[in-house]
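Predict the holo structure. Ligand: flavin mononucleotide.
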Amino acid sequence: MQEMHDTMWWLHRNPKPGGGAPWWQDGCMPTAADLWRQLRRASADRHHPWRVVALCTQGADGPRARSVILRQVHEEDRRLVFYTDRRSHKVHELAQCDRVALLCWDPRHQQQLRMTGQAAVDGSGDAVAAHWATVPERAQLDYASPLPPGSPLVDGSSEQGGPPAPGGAAAQDPTTRLRARGHFAVLQVQVCEMDFLELDRQGHQRCRQVWVPSRSVWEGQPLVP
Ligand SMILES: Cc1cc2nc3c(=O)[nH]c(=O)nc-3n(C[C@H](O)[C@H](O)[C@H](O)COP(=O)(O)O)c2cc1C
C-alpha cells in the first residue's frame, strides 16, 4: 500500500510519460479484446514491458515466481505461449499442479495485468518442432546444458554442466544441438481470468475479465482499485 501511495505521489508530481490516448476506447475500461490485442503486441515487440511475464507456479514448499518471455498469443483459444527447458523446476511443479498466475507490469504507463490459467507443457510433435525452428542458433544453446537448470555447479564452473560457450567446440558439435532440442519444451497457458489495473493521478482504474465457459464469452466487471 505504501508503494501505491508513493506511485500516486510520483504521478501527481510528474505527468504520465507518453501521455496520449489509451489503447482502449477513452472513457471506458479495456475489454478482453483490448487486453488480448495488447498482449499480442507485447509478444511481437521485444521492447514492450509486458513481454517479460512473471510466471507463478505452486511448488512443494509454496508459490514460486520467475520471469519468462511471452513468445506467442492466440486470442481464439485464450492461449499464451512460452519456451522453457523441460528439466526445469517449473515443469516439475506444473506436473503436480497445472494452475498458474501471471503478472505483467508496464512502469511507463503504470499498467498492471494479472492473469490466472491452466498450463500444459509439450516437448515433442510437429508444433514443438516448428517453434524450435524459430529459436536462433545462439539461443538454442541455452537448452544444451548437460545438467538441468538449477543444478549446483561444481567449483562454480559452468564447464562442469552449464550451457556450452557460443563459438566453442561444444557449441559447433551437432550432438550438442540434438541434446538441446531434447530439452526444449513449449509451455502454454490457457487464460481464464484477467485483472487490469491502471494507476492514474485522475483516479486509479481496475477491471476484471472472466471467461464464462458455458457461454464462451469474457464477462467484464469494473472493480474498486
Ligand atoms: C528477462 C528474463 C527472461 C527469461 N525468459 C525465460 C524464458 O522465456 N523461459 C524460461 O524457461 N526461463 C526464462 N528466464 C529464466 C527464468 O526466470 C528462470 O530463472 C529459469 O527458467 C529457471 O526457473 P525454474 O527453476 O523456476 O524453473 C528468464 C529470465 C529473465 C531474467
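The first helix runs from residue 2 to 13. The chain has one domain: 2-136+187-223.
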